[in-house]
Amino acid sequence: MSRLGDLIRTERVRQKLTPKQVAKRSGVSESYIMAVEAGTRIIADDQARRILKAIGLKQQTEAEFTLDDIAATVDLVQVQPRMAQIAQKPKKKEAELVASTEEKDEGVAGSVWLDALQSVLKRVPVMNAVMKPIDYKLVPVENGRIEGANPEKVFFYLAPDDSMRGFRIHKGDLVLTVPAQSPIDGAIMLMNYNEHRYLRKVKMLDDRHALLQSYDREYEAETVDLSDVGFIARCARVTFDL
């Protein structure tokens, strides 16, 4: 099954709805819902939102993530045990659970997939040139890690200038960084050098020296003694606004 199909089926079962009931609410056929859940039917974005809304899942508040993005990051392996626990609860506990859910906002609040979502998305800070947080972005967590690093240690660095645009990093781009205190040959790294903070591509020359490469209007490279450089992080990927 697809992640989106899993998500629809999981929430439908949690609400004890039949495919026919969901189909009626969504204005589609029962066979269509069953095909979507089975992952054998390609579903358009607007149709996906209509079905998710029909079963009570409203569009999330984080503007940079669509419902499809969320469906792609939810780990349904984590969700299914929660469904089993709910099914095994005594009737009294079940009623209490429903009551507590109804006290929250309508839609996604209290839904089982949103609980699972909290463990697969992380609010990562955006740091400016003086390393002060100015914003946050949601980033998927895979197997408890982001780009292989502790989610608590990663951050976005706001590129302060165009000195790396030849390496596809422009002023204002957000560079996702992971901790790295030692130079990595061929990597673009965030570092402290000559009392300034830089993004530079590293080319190792030997055990003690490296080239720090930049590329604004033209390529430049400076040979440095590694003992003079304080490496902060490795740049994993770049995001930018269109």
Secondary-structure topology with pairs:
Layout lengths: L2 H12 L4 H8 L3 H9 L6 H10 L12 H7 L2 H13 L2 H12 L9 H6 L3 E7 L5 E8 L14 E4 L15 E6 L8 E6 L2 E9 L4 E7 L3 E7 L3 E11 L3
Parallel strand pairs: 1-3
Antiparallel strand pairs: 1-2, 3-4, 4-9, 5-6, 5-9, 6-7, 7-8
Quick take:
By secondary structure, this protein is α+β, with helices and mostly antiparallel strands.
Description of the structure:
With 242 residues, this protein is of the alpha+beta class. The chain folds into two domains: 3-117, lambda repressor-like DNA-binding domains (434 Repressor (Amino-terminal Domain), Orthogonal Bundle); 122-239, Umud Fragment, subunit A. 32% of the residues lie in helices and 27% in strands. It has helices at 3-14, 19-26, 30-38, 45-54, 67-73, 76-88, 91-102, 112-117, and strands at 121-127, 133-140, 155-158, 174-179, 188-193, 196-204, 209-215, 219-225, 229-239. Strands 2-1-3-4-9-5-6-7-8 form a nine-stranded mixed β-sheet, with no helix packed on it. A hairpin with a 4-residue loop joins strand 6 and strand 7 (209-215). Helix 2 (19-26) packs across helix 3. It is elongated, with a radius of gyration of 24 Å. The chain starts with a helix and ends with a strand. Mean pLDDT is 78; it is low at 59-65, 73-80, 90-95 and 97-112.
